[in-house]
């Protein structure tokens, strides 16, 4: 499994620089507007509630756009990612946005050792994170280890139904596993999900899917209680070019034809019991 993380780290180190320069991430807006929030956090603003004074950690934080956004909503945030290149961009963003955020470079599975057990009121995971981890159970153990009793997990993620579809085909075509699988899905793709000015040289990636049942069961097994779960017909990127349309108000993408056919993402909340 170490090889898979090394493969993915090379890919994300290269993506970080390209993503930071991409207009789709819009990093300059965070410095220009002190009230600006990332689209992902803005989408879930009603579900996040009051974060004032909470100690939060954003796992797999990438460029830190969601991390800075949560900080702007009042949380004292820590960010963790395995890509040093991404964290360099995240620190630049936080500095430009006048956000006091503590960033750490580490594999998410090592987060408790790096950050300490039971320190956080909020564990946040943004969209497109769990697919890079081979085991939902190991991830859930990390979440439980980081949270204090009564602390909350908040996750917005791509739906495993979406991950199981072939994005280059009709949405009705199921090509990839829905349930967790031991061997990774291997892709070699010179493109990424935002507009960039050159192809990616380290395009090789390893990824995994995890069913909703496996994710929820893993959290229950590690002492968390599910408190909220909402499925959405939209996702923050164009999952099927030519077949999805962007909502100008939310920035989210959904199927042009009967979007209710596809559960594209979900928001899940759970609390660590005492």
Automatic annotation (TrEMBL):
Enumerate the spans annotated as Methyltransferase type domain. 58-153
This protein's record includes keyword Methyltransferase: yes
Q: Does the keyword Hydrolase apply?
A: no
Q: What superkingdom does the record give?
A: Bacteria
Keywords of this protein's UniProt record, alphabetized?
Methyltransferase, Transferase
Its GO biological process annotations read: methylation
Q: Where is the signal peptide?
A: none
InterPro entries noted in UniProt? Methyltransf_12, SAM-dependent_MTases_sf
One Pfam family, short name: Methyltransf_12
User: GO terms for molecular function, please?
Assistant: methyltransferase activity
What's the protein here called? Answer: Methyltransferase domain-containing protein
